[in-house]
Structure formats: C-alpha cells, structure tokens
Design brief:
The structure holds two protein chains of two kinds. Chain A is mostly helical. In chain A, 75% of the residues lie in helices and 0% in strands. The relative contact order of chain A is 0.15. Chain B has two domains: 224 residues, Rossmann fold (3-Layer(aba) Sandwich), CATH 3.40.50.300; 104 residues, RNA polymerase II/Efflux pump adaptor protein, barrel-sandwich hybrid domain (OB fold (Dihydrolipoamide Acetyltransferase, E2P)), CATH 2.40.50. Chain B contains nine helices and 22 strands. Classes of the chains: A mainly alpha, B alpha+beta. At the A-B interface, helix 9 and helix 10 of A face strand 7 and helix 2 of B.
Chain lengths: 256, 336
C-alpha cells in the first residue's frame, strides 16, 4: 500500500463512485409506500418466477456442460487447445443481441437445426426453452473460466497420487478433483446464474417477450420503463438486491 | 514377486536395465539428473519410454503395444511431499486407498483405523492434513500407501522433507514395513540405504554404473559417487606387493595379498587420514568445512577429517599443499 503513489487514490475513488452512485440514485427513486404492490403485480410476479426458473435451469445446464468442458480444457493436451479455449469464451465478448441472432439462425424455424427439430415436433424459438438456451449461451463462459482456472491452479499432483493408490479415473474425478475445486465450482455456478438472470439482448432476440412464457425480469423492466416507471425502478431494485446477494455468496470462501 | 525394467528414454538420456527380486528393497542412488526420478516415473506409469519393457510379477506394465494405466499397476508412490488430500481427514485419506481397492465403507473404516494404530497415530484420525506436522503427515501417507496393497512400493526420498529428530523414528517404521515388501527407494541419504535397502543401484547420466548388496557396495565402492555416498575415500592404482601405487606415483601402504602388478581399488575413511610433514600422498587443499566436531578437508580427490586445532596450527586454507597418510590397517583394498 505504502509503495503506491498517492494520486492513484483520486481516479480509484472516482471509479468507485461511478459504480456506486447510479445504484444509490436508483435506490433513492424507489417508492417504498407502493413497493410491495409494484413488485407483486401479476406481470411482475410472472416475470420474477420465469426469471428464477429459467436462470436456475441455465445454471444447471452450465454445470452439466461447463464442468466437462473445463476438465477437458484444463487437463488435456492437443493441438488447437488454446484456440478452442478462446472460442469457448466468445459469448463473453459477443454482444448478446448477436448471440440471439446466432441462436435464431441455429434453432429458429429457418435455422440450421430448427427445421429438423420442427419435424420432430420441437419448436424452440420464442419458447421458454429458448430463454434457457439464450441465457445458457451467455452464462456458460463464466463457469468455464472460473472452473478451468481453479483446475489449473490445483494441479495434477493429487490426481496422480490418487491414481497411484489404485483409484479409477471416475473415482479420482468425483472424490478428488471436484471436491478440490468445489469453491470455484460453486462461485462459477452462482456467477453463471447471475449472468443468466440479467440476460436481455439474446433473450429478446431469440425468445421474444411473451408474458409468462419468455418475458423475464429484465424484459419486464424494459417494458415497464415506459408505461410504469415506478414499477420498473422497484423491479430494478429487486434485481440489484439479487446481484448483491450473488456477489456475497460468490465471494464467500469455503473453509478449507 | 519381482520387477524387471529395461527402458530407453532418449530425451532424458536414459538407457538402463534394472531388476528387483520379490521382497527385496532396492536403493537407487546417483547424482542429481542421473535419472532416478525418471526410473520411478517409468514404473509408476507417468512416463512412456521410447522403447523398453517393464514387467511386475509376470505382468507386462509397459511394453510394445502394451500400456497398463497407472491406477491398474498396483504400484504406489510415496514421495517426500505426503500429498494428502486436503479435503479429507487422516482417516479419510487412508479410507480412500482402501475404497479404491474395492473395500466397502465399513470395512475401509475399520482397516484405516487399524493402519493408524499400527503407525502409532490413532489420535490423528479426525485431523485434516493442514493440522498435521510434517512427520505426522508422512506417517499418514505411509499408512495410505500401504493400505493400497501395492505389489511394488516406490519411495522417492521419503524422509528428505522431515526434521532430523523425526526422520529416525519414521525410518525405523519404514524398515519394519519394507522387510517383507518389494520396494524401490530413491535417496541421497546413506542411512536410508543402510537401514532400508538390501541392494543398491548407482545411476549416473542415465546409465547403471554399479550395483550390489548394500553392505558390500558401501564397503567396497567402485565409483567416485558411491564412495562419496558411503563417506569413503576411493583411489585406484597398481599393487606393488606392499602398497597401492597411484597414477601420480604416490604410495598408499596396505595389508593385502594381491598379485604384484594387479590393478586394485583402495578405500579408507576420511577420519583415518592424518597429515604428515614428508612422504604420504601430496595434494592441494580445495576446501575446508565443518563436519561434526571435526573439519572436513577436501583435496582434488581425497578428504580428511581433522581436529580444528590441527587445521589452525598448520594454517591450512584453500591452496595449501598437504601430505596425507593413512595407516595400512585402515585401508581396504580390492580388485578393480
């Protein structure tokens, strides 16, 4: 601390204010007298319920696919591994709207797979499934980044020791590797849940905005902003509280 | 039960053959980079040789078109770092090995408790590795390794990271456990070799340069490394009926019955070396370092342990010329 020049403090404080001030400004605009009614209106509750359900489903999908992806990225060696790692992270930097369009051209009616799926009686675009897919698409890299880093840091010595004791690869994975990276897996899951909860662009492009089916909380807030600003602020406040809770959970270190 | 290994690993300059008989403990020694760890990696299955064949109890572990994965080799490694799983207790760590061998939960617990008792640490069962001292952790690691019932135990400097006051007790325990087991121990410590090993193999630059029964090898070393490991001076020369005549013409008298002109090795302990004013073997001091309550004087090829008073009285320092003499009865000579 003492080795830092003092002027660093000024931009640092400005940056901090820049993050916190808008949140405070919004919180100040919440009409607490109507807060209860505003967030329990039929459309708000439907959006909240849908958001929680789809985000939970997305987080589960992220764990299901993201854990094996992280394991492969962290533990295997093959040509093009670093390229693949970069590709997996694309949704992180891609504008979500673009992600939504990409999904539409994959699973939409005219899409790459959509036509075939329709033959099977599956219509994905503009359904709740589409919401889950859109959220998973943008949230997956969060879990993969967090878990892959933890796997690399943990190294392979415990796994080698376990194999030397005669443990089969599945036992090593379930009893050694995953328990060792459990804190990172938990925080990665929470982060991907949070990212899914906040998803807007990909969802509205790929899933649309049907109340109760695809209109998640961020979409509801965006719609309400014009018709009922007070409701929009109240719902925003709810999402902010969720965000704070998520950060608290993700930062909590699991005692070792 | 026995192991035979033949392997070539060009990128590490390794090319050698080794065997370990059933129930035998082989110490593998050699300078850093000689290939000791490579040998262990080959046997444990961490490394593929370019060519070669490793057979344990008539089962080919590594060979042409044959590769048994590490977890199926029945070979367990114990290194200087205990590598206990941090999320499991001491008991849980040992249970892991038993469960990996197919034991049920209840039986694994029972046997793990028995192992802790056998190592004299039953009170540590519920401790996490972070709550164990180095010696305690290594005991748990030993119990865990033995609980896996390996056909071959690989020990990679198992005592190197321990305090001097902990190592002897652990060495004694290992001695009991290794008595009936087949094991390979890599070590830099002559005490490990003396207490644990039946036989010693000396590696240098990826080759096996010397091997033999522990006592024999340490008493009659044939290479400079082995002599240093055994704490002996080693010279060779021609026997002239009374003394060993070294290459530089110096004479080292000894009591022996070799044929005149025979090339022989002569080994003697640094503590037996005395400094004399004339005669003896002329050498130049290279370094002086404390060694117990004596001073270890090193020359080009020989060492002497001298009382500090003598070093001071003679004003010895690196570069000083000295003449070394050894009583004939303190010199062991044997055919080169």
């Amino acid at each position: 601390m003492s080795s830092l020049p003092r002027w660093v403090l000024i931009p640092a404080l400005l940056g901090g204010l820049f993050v916190l001030l808008p949140l405070m400004a919004m919180a100040l605009r919440v009409h607490w007298t109507h807060f209860g009614e505003l967030i329990t209106s039929e459309s708000s509750l439907a959006a909240l319920r849908l958001s929680l359900q789809t985000s939970a489903a997305s987080a589960a999908l992220c764990v299901l696919c993201g854990v094996p992806m992280s394991l492969l990225l962290a533990r295997s060696e093959f040509r093009g591994l670093s390229l693949l790692r970069s590709l997996v992270l694309i949704p992180l930097v891609l504008p979500p709207v673009v992600g939504g369009i990409a999904l539409l051209y994959t699973f939409g009616r005219q899409g790459l797979l959509g036509g075939h799926l329709e033959v099977l009686g599956l219509q994905i675009a503009f359904s709740t499934t589409a919401v889950v897919l859109a959220q998973t698409f943008v949230a997956l890299p969060f879990l993969v980044i967090s878990l892959e880093g933890a796997l690399r840091t943990a190294g392979t010595r415990y796994e080698a020791a376990a194999a030397s004791l005669g443990a089969r690869p599945s036992r090593v994975l379930l009893r050694v590797t995953l328990p060792l990276v459990m804190p990172a897996l938990l925080s990665g899951t929470v982060l991907s849940f949070a990212r899914a909860l906040g998803e807007f662009g990909a969802t509205i492009t790929f899933a649309g905005s049907l109340q109760g089916t695809t209109r998640t909380l961020p979409l509801e807030i965006y719609l309400q902003r014009e018709s009922d600003p007070e409701a929009a602020v109240a719902l925003s406040f709810v999402l902010m509280i969720v965000a704070v809770a998520v950060i608290a959970v993700a930062r909590r270190r699991v005692p070792s | 039960m026995s192991l035979s290994l033949r392997a070539v690993v060009p990128e590490r300059g390794l090319d050698l053959e080794l065997t370990v008989a059933g129930g035998e403990t082989l110490a593998v020694i050699g300078p850093n980079g000689a290939g000791k760890s490579t040998v262990l990696s080959l046997i444990s299955g961490a490394l593929h040789p370019a060519s070669g064949r490793i057979v344990l109890d008539d089962r080919v572990l590594t060979g042409e078109r044959r590769w048994v994965p590490p977890h199926e080799r029945k070979v367990t490694t114990l290194s200087q770092d205990p590598v206990l799983f941090p999320h499991l207790t001491a008991l849980g760590n040992i249970m892991f090995a038993l469960r990996a061998q197919g034991a049920g939960r209840a039986r694994a617990r029972q046997e793990a408790e028995r192992w802790l008792a056998e190592l004299g640490i039953p009170e540590l069962a519920a401790r996490r590795p972070s709550q164990l001292s180095g010696g305690q952790a290594q005991r748990v690691a030993i119990a865990r390794a033995l609980a896996a019932r390996p056909r071959l135990l690989l020990l990679d400097e198992p005592m190197a990271a321990l305090d001097i006051d902990v190592a002897p007790a652990l060495r004694e325990q290992l001695r009991c456990f290794l008595a009936e087991r087949t094991a390979i121990i890599v070590t830099h410590d002559v005490l490990d070799a003396l207490t644990l090993a039946d036989r010693i193999a000396v590696l240098e630059a990826g080759r096996l340069i010397e091997q033999g029964p522990t006592q024999e090898l340490l008493r009659r070393p044939r290479t400079a490394f082995t002599a240093r490991f055994a704490g002996l001076n080693l010279v060779s020369g021609r026997w002239d009926g009374r003394a060993v005549v070294l290459a530089d013409g110096a004479c080292l008298p000894a009591h022996a019955a070799h044929g005149a002109g025979e090339v022989v090795h002569a080994a003697f302990r640094p503590a037996k070396v005395a400094l004399v004013g004339s005669g003896g073997i002329p050498r130049t001091v290279r370094s002086l370092a404390p060694s117990g309550d004596l001073v270890r004087l090193r020359t080009e090829d020989l060492s002497a342990d001298l009382p500090p008073q003598e070093v001071a009285a003679r004003r010895l320092e690196p570069g000083s010329p000295v003449r070394l003499q050894v009583p004939p009865e303190a010199v062991t000579t044997y055919r080169a």
